[in-house]
UniProtKB/TrEMBL annotation:
Entry membrane topology: Multi-pass membrane protein
Location of the ABC transmembrane type-1 domain: 122-309
Domain of life: Bacteria
Example GO biological process: amino acid transport
SUPFAM superfamilies linked to this entry: MetI-like (SSF161098)
Keywords recorded for this protein, A-Z: Amino-acid transport, Cell membrane, Membrane, Transmembrane, Transmembrane helix, Transport
Protein name per Swiss-Prot or TrEMBL: Putative glutamine transport system permease protein GlnP
Residue ranges the record marks as coiled coil: none
Organism: Pseudomonas kuykendallii
Function: Part of the binding-protein-dependent transport system for glutamine; probably responsible for the translocation of the substrate across the membrane.
Transmembrane stretches, start-end: 12-30, 120-143, 164-185, 191-209, 280-301
Compartmental location: Cell inner membrane; Cell membrane
């Protein structure tokens, strides 16, 4: 007798109602403090039309102004006998034919789309996360294997590193790395920030790698040795591939945490996403709108990472 499958739509409807209730709660809370939403101020912090002023290079006279669509071509006859031809946006034209101009006078502007501070902050967060994540993965893999090494010195040094990093706040480590190590070695703030994040991530990755390797049955290593592989070959070709499948979820979680931890490098004047959001708030006075956009941008980074990790995990599970 087959069991009747229960419909799932009531549960999905309940989920939607809860989300609507949360949104209504946020709206009601802001209404209590008389907050005025100004979403129209937000787009300029993603992209805006920058204006480049076009100026006269020398004293002279406007010889001609030729308008072509939304552009205007201004020809100047300078006192040195040379001509200067400048193209500007038609609606920004500030001179007319026959006008005298001085050196540095503005003739008009050229407009072009430029990335706003939130997009630049997003880009900074992305490259810092990638650089620190790649370095942290290498550091963590090496340190995790050192934790399992038969050499007492390697085990002790790697243990000291892991416990020291995991036992102190990341913010304190960034300060120490920038103001002490960075000053002594004359490092840039970007390098210091990436290095601090990489060392912090590496300590956690090391423990993930160690746990993953130790979860593999000892018989796997013995079987590899019986086939003629030495210890390093057995670790590379047999143990680590199996361990990687098991540690993929915690590794993905660690890298997602790394993306959020990049917000702390703003304390050493790196303008990443969170710092860009704070700067946008000071000029727009749209506190809630900017912070919601910043949170959404972090989600734009982290949700694809989670989906990629889930798909890779399922694919590796099918290969068992």
């Amino acid at each position: 007798m087959t069991k009747k499958k229960r419909p799932l739509w009531p549960w999905h409807l309940l989920t939607v109602l809860i989300l609507v209730g949360l949104a209504a709660g946020i709206w009601y809370s802001t209404s209590l403090i008389s907050y005025e939403w100004r979403w129209n101020r937000v787009p300029q912090y993603f992209a805006y039309q920058a204006e480049d002023a076009q100026r006269a290079a020398d004293f002279g006279r406007v010889e001609s102004v030729v308008e072509d669509g939304d552009r205007a071509r201004v020809t100047l006859a300078t006192e040195s006998g040379k001509q200067q031809v400048v193209e500007v946006a038609r609606n920004s034209l500030l001179v007319a034919e026959g006008d005298d101009v001085s050196e540095g006078d503005s003739l008009g502007v050229n407009r072009h789309w430029a990335a706003g501070p939130l997009l630049w902050g997003l880009w900074t967060t992305l490259w810092i996360s990638v650089a620190a994540g790649a370095a942290g993965l290498v550091i963590g893999l090496f340190t995790g294997l050192c934790r399992l090494s038969p050499n007492p010195t390697l085990r002790d040094l790697s243990s000291v590193y892991v416990e020291l990093v995991r036992g102190t706040p990341l913010l304190v480590q960034i300060f120490i790395f920038y103001f002490f190590i960075g000053t002594v070695l004359n490092l840039s703030r970007e390098f210091a920030g990436v290095a601090a994040l990489a060392l912090f991530t590496g300590a956690y990755v090391a423990e993930i790698v160690r746990a993953g390797v130790q979860s593999i049955a000892r018989g796997q290593s013995e079987a590899a040795r019986s086939l003629g592989l030495n210890g390093a070959q057995a670790m590379r070709h047999v143990i680590l591939p199996q361990a990687f499948k098991r540690v993929l979820p915690p590794l993905a979680g660690q890298f997602i945490s790394l993306v959020k931890d990049t917000s702390l490098v703003s304390v050493i004047a790196i303008t990443e996403l969170t710092k860009s959001g704070r700067e946008a708030i000071t000029t727009s006075f749209s506190t809630f709108e900017i912070w919601f956009c910043v949170a959404a941008l972090y989600l734009v980074i982290n949700l694809p990472l989670s989906q990629i990790a889930n798909k890779l995990e399922r694919r590796l599970a099918q290969s068992d």
